Amino acid sequence: MNTVISRFIIHNLLPPNAPTFTRIHVHFVSSPRRRRFGTVAVSHSPDVSDERMVVVGGGAAGIYGAIRAKTLAPNLNVIVIEKAKPLAKVKISGGGRCNVTNGHCPDNKILAEKYPRGSKEFRGSFFNVHGPGDTMSWFSDHGVKLKIEEDGRVFPVSDNSSTIVDCLLNEARQKGVTLQTGKSITSASISQSGKFTLKIEKRTIDYVDFVEADYLLIASGSSQQGYNLANQLGHSIIKPVPSLFTFKIDDIQLTELSGITFPKVKASLKLESLKKNIPQLTQIGPMLVTHWGLSGPVILRLSAWGARDLFDSSYKGTLLVDFSPDLSNEDIKALLSQHKKQFPKQKVGGSYPQEFGVMKRFWKYLLNREGIDEDILWASISNNSLMSIATLLKQCSFIVKGKGQFKDEFVTAGGVPLSEISLKTMESRIQSRLFFAGEVLNADGITGGFNFQNAWSGGYIAGTTIGQLATSATSAPSTLKQQAA
Description:
Number of helices: 15
Structural class: alpha+beta
Strand content: 25-35%
Number of strands: 24
Helix content: 25-40%
Strand order of the largest sheet: 15-18-17-16-19-20
Largest sheet: 6 strands, antiparallel, barrel
């Protein structure tokens, strides 16, 4: 079979009017059965002067970090490499509204407690540098009007995530950030000159490029791409597992109540494999019945705090739900006895104490679980039956048989350990000029805008550090620049 040999000269990824950088000659060999590969020889242009920052991932942390670095160091060449569409998760978050951050956590220590992974580490300077208030100010200063809803979630007044996406992309464009989409960085190494050598591939066509970078920011979310690059550059990876998901419940009669909501319940997750008591595995908040089980903020918070233990338990356990957390067991018994005396001739299935705050369909579900005929009169119901109803309202058990997916807004627990980076700079403790931000780190929050705040804070700190380093390098040329000249 004939082999075709072709020669390509691949220029840097910057606009034509930007200062020239390393030009790379790549010789490709391809055949109908073999993927094209390249050998590279690097030659330096004599007018190399500026430094280059490459960002892996065009999500919230990557774009925000790129903008910050370019703001502080306008002469720094900033390139964002994104394999799909930029800011895709921002686009779909909050049901298409984009939950930007949370406005009910002015105390940074309280804010840190919203992160199952990161709660201890984030108590320090992390949010002091750039917290929720700073995030809201940044977007407001860039023309985005925001609102804080009753539960603390912050959304654009437009209720449209495109407002946030457009703001970030426009600012990146105005600052001169170069965005390359449809490409993946598949390998990273350190060259003899101390720079990062990055291999870039495009999936849709046979395309290989090699780019050198002075600074590398990995902000690739939960993509395997980021974990691989971190590993290649000396970092360990804590196995990523899903977080923020719904519970599949083994109860057909419950799932037939799909759509019923509970404004406030107290739910506790029990796992056989878990020997120690974890206070966060008890949560209070709204809950929703779905056609596969249970969802809502209280369930999603439990899934976040129990992410690793649920994974180890094959997503099987027991959920205990208190449907009237503001009432004691004795209060409920008293209300039931009073209702029996007040409405003796009414059917049990047709009336019940409204103080319980449950819908009639769910009340009938409770009666059915206890084997109580909903057509009998209140006068005929036994005291033992009243006690069993009270117990069920306060401690109703459900068998968790698996996990559902929280739409496309998935979050993972795991990634690069926080101990391997400095949260003051977001720089690697293992490799200088290597930075991380966002979900690629072993840090994740509960629902309510906390995961995006992690991205904004990390991206801002990383961008600030890189921008300051690049500015210092411009004012005092480094040894590497002198050698290149």
